[in-house]
Amino acid sequence: MAVSCPNIQQEIQTEESDEKVDPNERQKLKRPYPFPSSIEDSLNDEIIPEAVDVLDSIFASLCSFSENSSTSHDISIVENTNNISSSEKEVEEAKSDEIEIIYDNNYTSISVNAEDQTENVSEPFEEIYDFTNIPIQVTGAWKEFGKENNYTRGCKWAPDGSCILSCSDDNKLRLFNLPEELWDFTKWQDMPEMEAVVKISEGNLIYDYCWYPLMNSAEPSTCCLASCSKHTPVHLWDGFTGELRCSYRAYDQMDEITAAKSLSFDADGARLFCGFDKTIRVFNVDIPGRSYETRQTFAKKSGQPGIISCFAFTSQNRSISAVGSYQKTIGIYSEPNGELECLLEGQKGGLTQLQFSPDGNLLYSGGRKDSEILCWDLRNLGDVLYCLRRSCVTNQRMYFDISRCGRYVVSGNNNGIISIWDTYEESKALECDEFSVLKPIQFYLGHNDCVNGIRRALETFL
């Protein structure tokens, strides 16, 4: 692992251990923490299969809430008056019917008094999920991917949580609306299978795709998504009709169209970042065509080499962006000028995903054929804060996601297992030679194949 900054000559390296491993100990090294017994039996004690199947269906699994939480953001409470004097108790009882807790988008509770409408901000609401029980599968889509070998390549919730976008090997993007029965748990037994309401076909292999970050179904103009595929420009699609809205064309030195390998909107949705070999091209979303800003990431043996494979932005700090490459490096860039501020090295595989925590202080990274999700603290760059281990033996993009409160990280594995980590239990991390390893708090069997896409929307994980 190494960190290099243009203004700070600093490098931290760790050598891999050459210690020989006893064959009898290999299984223990593959599995530093136990699986639940039910999952042990289903896996036949095999954690990383030699032959990796791929995901052939998508599913939605809802995590049950704790007894003290509710699906509604307006929650009435009863004050505890056991330790209050009799006079104070009468006052509190008189006001108990006039107080309610309202949660904002960041799960911060605000106490509101009906008489004077004063607001007192309290601690963030964090206990959203109850992981004592295995989440249940309520619906899915199978017929849409019935074609032989038509495996899915990830899924992404719409920013407003109203629908799901999937990508598959037949070079199609499919959009699924959530069944109305989903919001009434009494109807879960009769939940229909999801069917694609919009299908978008690309001519070649789809490299990457993403939603417009400000997408809102109530505003049709914001309902759009972008995709990039082999030998084609970047396309912006209408989320309602599936029609092409516009194209963003990048050209090489021979004045021929070159395809982007990755793409992402910034947090404001004003610019579209596209990754190429040693180059980032930035399009103004309002100006389609061939008008763009070119940023060379590597020149004169300096900078960030390789194909730019992923991006990450945070609304908490719009002055920075994170950029990953297939050369196993992460670049931290200042915005809007795009200057490289710091280069992080430590991922064992080419970067496939970067994601900031909701507060913008932590950066999570994952790579292809890399079993480690690394957590970087942007306030103290140079050391990995902790590591989350999963089974990842494929070149596919294997996505992970973070809960809205920033506490839980969820990822799929090659063996069909879904792992959940509680990042607030950092103190319980196992100390290893390189960095701390955080143990999952729960496993459950999600598929019989590789789970390469997992996403959350509001209080729901997919």
Short key terms for the protein model shown above:
disordered C terminus; five-stranded antiparallel sheet; 462 residues; SWT21/TCAB1_mRNA_Telomere; 5% helix; 39 strands; globular; mainly beta; six-stranded mixed sheet
Structure description:
By secondary structure, the chain is mainly beta. A hairpin with a 5-residue loop joins strand 18 (262-265) and strand 19. The longest helix has 10 residues, at 86-95. It starts with a strand and ends with a strand.
Can you tell me the residue ranges where pLDDT is under 50 for at least 5 consecutive residues? 7-127, 458-462
- Structural class of the helix and strand makeup? mainly beta
Instruction: Outline the biggest β-sheet.
Output: 6 strands, mixed
Query: Globular, elongated, flat, extended or rod-shaped: what is the shape?
Result: globular
In terms of DSSP E residues, the strand content is 35-45%
DSSP, total strands: 39
N-to-C CA distance: 32 Å
Residue-averaged pLDDT: 76
Number of H/I helices? 3
Rg to the nearest angstrom? 24 Å
Proportion in helices: under 10%
Q: How are the strands ordered across the major sheet?
A: 28-29-30-31-36-35
